[in-house]
Amino acid sequence: MNSLSVYLVLGAVLFSLGLFGVILRRNLIGMLISIELMLNGANLNFMAFNRFLAPEPAVGQIVTLFVMGIAAAEAAIGLSIILALFRRLHSINVEQARRLEG
Amino acid sequence: MNSFLTSGLIHAAFWVVVGLTFGGAVLAVFPRKIVYNVLGLIVCLSGVAGLFLYLGSFFLALMQLLIYVGAICVAIVFAIMLSPPLHLEVPKRRMGKVVLSAGASGVFFVAIAAVIWKTVWHPAAERGADWSIVTIGHLLLTRYDLVFELISLVLLVAIIGAILTTGFSRRLSS
């Protein structure tokens, strides 16, 4: 249970599921949820390396904290863009948002 | 005997947490109803918080619960309630797209898993044992000072930008 590769495979699975969701979903909120999954996979990797390999155990935790802060900012901006788009198009399907397509 | 039982219990709990994380992630990606996705995301993020506990960081587990489950998931739920996409009809999924995206992410996963399996990981020569929150606080205010301030600036800009984006779009459309 306590081996590095278990956590790394877990992080890789989370990231791949998030990637799958980003490609598959057409619902913008669904895509945002998948991006959160990908960020969590990366976080898990940072924490695993921090626990098993890193010389200073505090640094990985700090990087994970920074990723969480960025994720919060990204969620706020993304959700406000989704709300603005919904008011314009009455839909949150990405395939409807093609006004800039040319 | 007792310690054996305890370690077995901890071991079992680890796999339960892993199962919660997987189940939540699957639930967050596959169903087409967005509310189930958010529920799955909450379960998955709580599972990741449990994994952080196993990785020895109680502080990060609490932060995970506070920031992700407490803030981001609640914000997503608010966005779902403000824009009623639940009543819109959900377009059917095309089978080809499902297969292609599963193939793409599968190739990615296989590549990463091969790298994990092939690499021989060496721990650092001398490893500190300082996990405490005090050290994290000291490092945040000394060595990572600039990054810390930049993160706060980014968050401030994000908040103002979110307010402006939603506010201006309302004014323009009405």
From TrEMBL, chain A:
Subcellular location: Cell membrane; Membrane
Transmembrane helix is among the record's keywords: yes
GO terms for biological process, alphabetical: ATP synthesis coupled electron transport
Membrane topology of this protein: Multi-pass membrane protein
Subunit structure: NDH-1 is composed of 14 different subunits. Subunits NuoA, H, J, K, L, M, N constitute the membrane sector of the complex.
Role according to the record: NDH-1 shuttles electrons from NADH, via FMN and iron-sulfur (Fe-S) centers, to quinones in the respiratory chain. The immediate electron acceptor for the enzyme in this species is believed to be ubiquinone. Couples the redox reaction to proton translocation (for every two electrons transferred, four hydrogen ions are translocated across the cytoplasmic membrane), and thus conserves the redox energy in a proton gradient.
Protein name, as recorded: NADH-quinone oxidoreductase subunit K
Organism in which the protein naturally occurs: Desulfacinum hydrothermale DSM 13146
Gene: nuoK
Automatic annotation (TrEMBL), chain B:
Organism listed in the record: Desulfacinum hydrothermale DSM 13146
InterPro entries: NADH_UbQ/plastoQ_OxRdtase_su6, Nuo/plastoQ_OxRdtase_6_NuoJ
Name of the protein: NADH-quinone oxidoreductase subunit J
Family recorded in the similarity comment: Belongs to the complex I subunit 6 family.
Keywords annotated in UniProt: Cell membrane, Membrane, NAD, Quinone, Transmembrane, Transmembrane helix
GO molecular function, one term: NADH dehydrogenase (ubiquinone) activity
Role description: NDH-1 shuttles electrons from NADH, via FMN and iron-sulfur (Fe-S) centers, to quinones in the respiratory chain. Couples the redox reaction to proton translocation (for every two electrons transferred, four hydrogen ions are translocated across the cytoplasmic membrane), and thus conserves the redox energy in a proton gradient.
TM regions (residue ranges): 12-31, 38-59, 65-86, 98-117, 146-168
Group of enzyme by EC: translocase
Membrane-related topology note: Multi-pass membrane protein
Keyword Membrane tagged: yes
Catalytically driven reaction(s): a quinone + NADH + 5 H(+)(in) = a quinol + NAD(+) + 4 H(+)(out)
Main location: membrane
Key word Membrane present: yes
EC code: 7.1.1.-
Compartments, record wording: Cell membrane
Gene3D superfamilies named among the record's database cross-references: NADH-ubiquinone/plastoquinone oxidoreductase chain 6, subunit NuoJ
GO cellular component: plasma membrane
